[in-house]
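Supplementary notes for students who missed Thursday's class. We covered one full example, reproduced here. Read the sequence, then the structure, then the short commentary at the end.
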Amino acid sequence: MRMSEGVEWAVHSCLILAWVEDRGPVPTARLASRYDLPAPYLNKQLQALGRAGIVTSIPGPKGGFRLARRPERITMMDIVAAIEGPDEAFRCTEIRQRGSAGDITMRALRRPCSVASAMRTAELAWRRALAAQTLADVMTETERQLPEAGDRVRRWFDRS
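Structure (token representation):
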């Protein structure tokens, strides 16, 4: 399965918003500058996060984005679904009924396609794994690997 790079940028942006949550909203241009991204591109991801209730947009000259929920209440699946949409990754089109394979019996067609079943099982495991990890978990792991991560982000925010 391949996800768009928008998922990566959305997760990183949420991490920044979590680390600076006590400092106020962060403008899109500021978040984009952290990763050298075009602000309009990142804004699309932030708008999708907003529609999903993950971030809140604050209007005005001192506005920007902030998390709408605590990091413990935002799962990785929430972020992925906000950016990629809720649709299943695999869609069975019943090709077993086409071409020379189309002579399959009606009795066999009453059973779910074994290919679709296998793909669904794998996707459910993937979704459960993402739903079991929160933004807070990712923050903790990031800080375990790089203890100064949160402080570095806060210093960056305070400098600009």
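Commentary. The CA atoms of residues 51 and 110 lie 39 Å apart. The first helix runs from residue 5 to 19. If anything here is unclear, bring it to office hours.
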